[in-house]
Amino acid sequence: MKRYAPFLLVAAGIVGALWYFWPDVLSARKKRQDDLNSLLAKTDSQPPLTPSVSTPATPPTTPQTPPSTPA
Question: What is the structure's pLDDT at 23?
Fold first, then answer.
C-alpha cells in the first residue's frame, strides 16, 4: 500500500478538483454556447453585404495580339 500511496493521492486530487470545478466548467460551456448562439442570431438578422443593385462583371478589354512566329 505504501508503494501506491503517491499515485492514489494524485488520483484523489484530480477527482477532487474535477468534483469541485466541474459545475464551473459546465456553466462556462453553456455561457459560451449561449454567447455563440446570440452572436449567430445577430449576424443572421443583418442584411447581406452584397450590393442591392448587381452589375454584371465585364472582363477588361485588352487588344489581343497574335503570337509572333519566327520567319
Answer: 83
Rounded to whole angstroms, the Cα distance separating 51 from 60 reads 21
Q: What are the helix (H) ranges across 1-71?
A: 5-45
Task: Work out the average pLDDT over 48-69.
Answer: 66
- The Cα–Cα gap between 65 and 53 comes to 35
pTM over 0.85? The answer is no
Q: Measured on CA atoms in the order 10, 11, 15, 21, is the torsion positive or negative?
A: positive
- HSE (CB half, 13 Å, CA atoms) of 50? 4
Instruction: Compute and round to an integer the Cα radius of gyration of the chain.
Output: 32
